[in-house]
Amino acid sequence: MKRIFLLLALGVCALLLAARHAAAGELSLPPGTETILEHIYSGRSDLAILEAEALEREQPDHPLGYLLEAEARWWQIWCLSADYRYGMSLPRHRGKVPADQVYLEAVAKAEALADASLGKHESPDMHLYAGMAGGLAARMYGLRAENRAAARAGVRAREHFLRTLALDPSLADADMGLGLYNYYVDTLSTIARVLRFFMGIPGGSKEEGIRQLQLAMDHGQLTPALARYYLAICLHLYDQNYEKALQVATPLVEKYPANPIFRLVRGDLFGKLGRKAPAIADYRAAAAAPIADPACRRKLEQLVRESLAAQGAGAERGAGQ
């Protein structure tokens, strides 16, 4: 009899897990969302921003247009804030710049709209959007080394993501935010302990974070590319697991071959693994990518020159022009 009950319990658990994965992708997204995401991760933030602003005009009470605008603007911010150190190109801590305000205004608008909707009727999608807004805010504050503001925004986002999954466990995009939270809080132990003591920040688990990022990669609608990017960066920067990071990053390059940032990410990993020829090929492909913003173009060319120099190579004449 005990064996029968055990089998029944295991069967119920399996069904629940399968239901979570089978039901993934239940967000009702506004028309044009997939095109905007495609342009963001193809390295065409210029197009994505215009499309997101059009979505805001068409659906002014929906948070997603503002979230997509902020995400598109982030990659422009990434470009202008990055430098090449320790064998990888990444944004580094910096002070405030005027362009930050446009990004933060879009984030604040998205959060306000989601909160207003939740005040009328609680729904998992609006908790997801509110959590995404908190995560986007935390990302900017982290870039500016505003650790307390980043922690507050991150904890606020975490609460929304947990509520999202409590209401609808199929919304794997919430796993993206929770995965990053769990990974970073566990990995950045010294900072996290100090902030946790003063602000009551919940702890996290790096292993659980990796599992959740994988869920978002496999089953999310809005965040698969972002989850893949951050998992590759985490495995590179904190775990020094370059081979695994390369396996995670390569599908990004394959799906979005014109994105110079993804090329730099993979080139750096090839470089760490001593594979100079594919590293140089990725760096030169990054230099050849079409970049609309002149300031970003100049910064990208600088990153490529420094990356190639680290591999003992030079930029090809005319690359990036």
Strand order of the largest sheet: 1-2
Largest sheet: 2 strands, antiparallel
Shape: globular
User: Gyration radius, to the nearest Å?
Assistant: 20 Å
Query: Kindly state the mean pLDDT as a whole number?
Result: 88
Count the DSSP helices: 15
List the helices and strands in order: HHHHEEHHHHHHHHHHH
Helix coverage percent: over 70%
Protein architecture, described:
By secondary structure, the protein is mainly alpha-helical. The protein has a domain at 240-311: Serine Threonine Protein Phosphatase 5, Tetratricopeptide repeat, CATH 1.25.40. Helix content is 74%, strand content 2%. The chain has 15 helices and two strands. It has a two-stranded antiparallel ribbon.
